[in-house]
Write a structure and sequence with these properties.
Strand content: 15-25%
Number of domains: 1
Distance between the termini: 14 Å
Number of helices: 7
Strand order of the largest sheet: 2-1-3-6-7
CATH superfamily: Flavodoxin domain
CATH architecture: 3-Layer(aba) Sandwich
Radius of gyration: 17 Å
Length: 192
């Protein structure tokens, strides 16, 4: 484990449980494994895919125009970050029963046929194997893992789709609200 990708998508900066817990997780993993960390704040602007992006992805790479390459430039960077990472820490609060739009925009940018998955005669196959993902989730009212939580299952599915099968869901609210155990100790127990 040498490289860690830390993704935040909470629209809150002050008082964000996912930002707090994911940062503690990244700090401890960085110390424990001497990691190189790439931070990306999805909430600061992750564009939605559009017609030019879709056209560019369906154009064979060797035939892409300058416009096609420009349309995919950020997507290529996001995919490169994910490919390079051995460990991913994805912090995503639950907004209206699911992930923030910024998280969904990132997913759309990185789910790239030929880059992160391929189609086979047995269906799609993820290409990003042998990676570890921690998904830090918080919700103001939707219990994590409940039938109303469309975020944790969705993120596990999407990560699995691109080949990341080793996914740990972390309930940030339960960690922060546990007055008996400091956040640092709770996170240390998760990664031990």
């Amino acid at each position: 484990m040498n490289t860690l990708l830390h993704l935040n998508s909470s629209g809150r900066y002050e008082g964000s449980l996912t930002r707090q817990v994911s940062q503690e997780l990244v700090t401890q993993l960085e110390k424990k494994h001497s990691l190189s960390v790439t931070h990306r704040d999805l909430a600061k602007g992750t564009p939605f895919i559009d017609e030019s992006w879709i056209h560019a992805t369906f154009t064979p790479e060797e035939q892409r125009s300058a416009e096609n390459k420009a349309a995919l430039a950020l997507s290529d960077t996001l995919v490169d970050e994910l490919v390079a990472a051995d460990t991913i820490v994805l912090a995503a609060p639950i907004y209206n029963f699911s992930v923030p739009a910024a998280t969904k925009a990132w997913i759309d940018q990185i789910a790239r046929v030929g880059r992160t998955f391929v189609y086979t005669e047995n269906g799609p196959k993820g290409l990003l194997e042998n990676k570890k993902a921690y998904v830090v989730i918080a919700s103001g009212g939707v219990p994590i893992g409940s039938e109303m939580d469309f975020a944790s299952g969705y993120l596990t599915l999407v990560l699995g789709f691109v080949g990341i099968q080793d996914v740990t869901i972390i309930n940030a609210a339960s960690i922060v609200q546990d007055e008996q155990t400091p956040v640092s100790d709770a996170v240390a127990a998760i990664i031990s």
